[in-house]
Amino acid sequence: MLLELKNISKAFSGVQVLHDMNIDIKKGEVHVLLGENGAGKSTIIKIITGAYQKDTGELKWKGENLVINKPSDAINAGIGTIYQELNLIPELSIAENIFLGHEKKRSGKFSLLDRSTMKNEAKQLMERLGQDVDPDELIQNLGVGQQQLVEIAKALSLNCELIIMDEPTSSLSEREAEQLLVTIERLKKQGMTIIYISHRLEEIKRISDRITILRDGSKIRTVDTAATSIDEMIALMVGRSLDNKFPKIQFEKGKEVFSVKNVKLTPDAPEINFSAYQGEILGISGLVGAGRTELARALFGADPIYSGEVFVFGEKQHIRNPIDAIKAGLAFISENRKEEGLFLDQSLTFNKTITKLNKVKSKGLINVRKQKEVAEKYIKDLSIRPNNINLFVKYFSGGNQQKVVIAKWLFTDAKVFIFDEPTRGIDVGAKVEVYKLMNSLVEEGAGVIVISSELPEILGISDRIIVMHEGKITANLNRDEANQEVIMKAATGGCS
Ligand SMILES: Nc1ncnc2c1ncn2[C@@H]1O[C@H](COP(=O)(O)OP(=O)(O)OP(=O)(O)O)[C@@H](O)[C@H]1O
Ligand SMILES: [Mg+2]
């Protein structure tokens, strides 16, 4: 055993978040923590890495007691962590970032940095991860996927024996995610031990040796991955079997709700034309970087449009900023919840009602009781946990924060909803809740547009799918014409 968690418990202001947790991590294994949003996965990690203090229990490292009071204790023991928000400095090079805080000095000469050794070692560390890079390259010139690999290289440079990754693929494109999975397989061959958290069951099945399933802060069981099907994982995780991952309802196609005519984002950009109708979910597929988020942001007035027109229920709209967009009946549920979607230092109630304060105002004042009612309704509808409307949003688990973003926009009574990667970081059970919500929006006559990089999701929920490649629409497919191959072909510009 490399790491043992023994009877670990943790409560936040009286709410028990971890109950008597016992988990063993074997040397050389990829061990997954699996559980619904709010199950306690990130809290366990934060206790191991010294970000939080446990209330009771103990940690053992190679059989010895391990005391972790602060993050440097974990690093000194040999535990490295790759967080979802990367901690690199964009203006510095790969080598400088890897050795930041533990720079190599030339022997004898006090405080002179040994740049060439650091560069060489950085290059070798990246090679261990299968990356042939120039160590002088600045971080800001790398994609998110490669940046993450630099974080891993940094952990290797610190001689970590255990690397912990909390939802590392949730912000990556398919290709980058694949690269990370290959890197993990490579590290495992080199003898590295990895604790891995993800909501993507296929990748868990592929890379892990064992899975510990958590529910509501308690350990349910540790299973061998090879002997466990994805359906079993789901059943253990949510406590029941999930018969339909995509609860699609067919509605009659109605009026045109939203239409984009000859829109260009820049003078040289391709013209974009598409419409969304009542009664359908319009999916927008494409590889990360295909220009879908840029388009959505521009349509919502967050970025300028160079030329073209936008119509809501046939009426031409003049959208110069998000306020105009909200007035025109648009809602944009952004993929970037931390930066754009939420006021983290505010309560759930505040976040939910901020987009439409008029609805909870009476005589010019905010009606707190009404605000509270609204928040409680959405907590119930989206099964947001914990059901505490006064808790600051930053204390919610990642997936539950995403649900708050969605609730915030549902509250606006918009006519057209544009969802950008809506289920990123959301567990399988909650995904179904989100899809059901989309169904009810369609049923109520709203336009629903969903941008997603996950092909099974796009195929599972859309009635029609447009595919983008390099800022251009390369396909417009009905549900019965669409499959993974056709979409991938259009997403890569026709050459698969
Ligand atoms: N600092 C805090 N104060 C209060 N409650 C907290 C705090 N940190 C976490 N919690 C609560 O602890 C519970 C477990 O959260 P945690 O982040 O560990 O969940 P998770 O399993 O990582 O979920 P997700 O899959 O959504 O990331 C949640 O109910 C969360 O709201
Ligand atoms: Mg988490």
From TrEMBL:
Cited CDD domains: ABC_Carb_Monos_I (cd03216), ABC_Carb_Monos_II (cd03215)
Highest taxon listed in the record's lineage: Bacteria
Keyword Amino-acid biosynthesis listed: no
Pfam families xref list: ABC_tran (PF00005)
Molecular function GO labels: ATP binding
Entry keyword annotation includes Repeat: yes
Keywords: ATP-binding, Cell membrane, Membrane, Nucleotide-binding, Repeat, Sugar transport, Translocase, Transport
Start and end residues of each ABC transporter domain: 3-241, 252-495
Name assigned to this protein: Ribose transport system ATP-binding protein
Organism: Siminovitchia thermophila
